[in-house]
Amino acid sequence: MEVEEGEWSKLSIYKAARSIKKRDNSLYNALRSIYQDSVFVSEISQLWPQVPLLANLRCGLWYSSNFHSTCYFKSTDGHTNNCSFSTSRLNLHVAHLAAQKGGCMIVDSTRRGKRFPDSMSKTIPIWTCVLNRAISQFRTDSNIHENDAALPQEDCNGCGEVARDWDCSLHLPLWVPQTEKASIEEHLEEWTEQLKASGADIASLAVTLKKPLRPLWISQKTVIWLNEVPHHDSWDFTPVILVSASSSSNGVSQHNRTTSEFSWNYIPGAGDDEESWSRGLTPPLFWNHVYDLINSGPEICNQKVADIVEKSRVRRAYRGENAPQIRVKSLSRQEPSLASDVSNIEIEANANESSEDFEVSWLGSTNLAVGASQFVKDVADVDCILNCDSESISVSLPSADTYLHLPMVSSKFDRFSLLNNLSKAVSFAKFNLCQGKRLLVCCSNGEDISVCVCLAILMSLFDEKGTFDGGDSFDTTHVTKWDLRRWLVFVCKFATNARPSRGNLRQVFNFLIGGKCILQPQEDDGSDE
């Protein structure tokens, strides 16, 4: 927002500061900062090219176009004097991947003027320690009770020796105070027992993980001697390399004379809180147009992004996908407007404009799947669809009673949206699953609302072994929060991108403990109920 010189006297100090901050945190500055930090991420990943690169959602996803997969470690689980181990976000796929590849590399960033976010300083170190402790205890128990052990006999040989040498200590960075480390260590046994009680598959991880997990920290201030970079297999542990993408310096003006004529302001952790600045741009769209955007300059960057977002939206709509128009906050005092006023956009038939990778996750042998609504038409072997997105979708199904649209929104917008619709969702699932049909539950991203609906269906219609019983076991079960956590671990085993919010999970739990009259038949049986 530009302010004429004569107007400064009319502005309060607060409004002047807001104006300067808005100018410094412009869209171009954010994208240019992300691009510069991505160069650092690329350089680090090339030091260990065999180690898979993972993005810690959502901020980390902006810093490379070559991620192997994603993970979800929250900084709130590592906040000072409030550290915790989350059984809702076990990220076991990360441990399995590290076991298979000999390590992994996780990218994240922070705006807070410090080198590492709390997710890297404490959340992930706690996670590695708790997993190591659970694996060690499992291997010790397997060696003591060899006849009942889940490990094959050939894998059990030497388990006791491995367990004794297995590093179960808590490894934290030097900047975490010893008092806080001692406080965390007091809870490690409790968290280990919670992990074991959650139903997580520790047995398979104990077989594949040959060396204990251990975090390593790398930032832009880390000194690395290129001629002395060790091979990741040479360590006596499985490295979880934590790369903080951004510089801890703030407000540094940058100017690249060789590749750009534009001055710009560096924003640490620019990828964070994307809703406030991205104007509908996503990481895949950014990387498909990165050089065009970086070279556009700050004056026309906003319009470039608007055109890209609108063109992508029209292309998705042309393919029959859900493609709502994006509204953004105007930088002027005018009313909010659509992301672009482009009225005539040429649709390229073979364009490689991509959104996110297509993925629908089948939940074991339950005949239940979870996924994103925009990819529904690409899914094979689906007999019925429960759409929880706010928009209806076009589907090709044999009959009308095999598709149900129940619009739901996150608890941030409506605290009772799921709770008010779960009864119909479970009844629809029961009607179709009892006929042996395969059901897909979808929402806008396949990560939150649809996962919560699947949890309600699984806990209402399946027994503890994951066998469909139409609700017989549910009628005689007292549901606890631990039951919900165990089923969430089951879902996350197959849907590794699941990220249900606490507010939505609370609605599922309230629904499950709110009564048993939820399993009415889908069809009209002539009764008044």
UniProtKB/TrEMBL annotation:
<dbReference type="InterPro" id="IPR033421">
    <property type="entry name" value="Rit1_DUSP-like"/>
</dbReference>
<dbReference type="InterPro" id="IPR033449">
    <property type="entry name" value="Rit1_N"/>
</dbReference>
<feature type="domain" description="Rit1 DUSP-like">
    <location>
        <begin position="402"/>
        <end position="512"/>
    </location>
</feature>
<feature type="domain" description="Rit1 N-terminal">
    <location>
        <begin position="20"/>
        <end position="310"/>
    </location>
</feature>
<dbReference type="Pfam" id="PF04179">
    <property type="entry name" value="Init_tRNA_PT"/>
</dbReference>
<dbReference type="InterPro" id="IPR007306">
    <property type="entry name" value="Rit1"/>
</dbReference>
<dbReference type="GO" id="GO:0043399">
    <property type="term" value="F:tRNA adenosine(64)-2'-O-ribosylphosphate transferase activity"/>
</dbReference>
<protein>
    <recommendedName>
        <fullName>Initiator tRNA phosphoribosyl transferase family protein</fullName>
    </recommendedName>
</protein>
<dbReference type="Pfam" id="PF17184">
    <property type="entry name" value="Rit1_C"/>
</dbReference>
<dbReference type="GO" id="GO:0019988">
    <property type="term" value="P:charged-tRNA amino acid modification"/>
</dbReference>
<dbReference type="GO" id="GO:0005737">
    <property type="term" value="C:cytoplasm"/>
</dbReference>
<dbReference type="InterPro" id="IPR029021">
    <property type="entry name" value="Prot-tyrosine_phosphatase-like"/>
</dbReference>
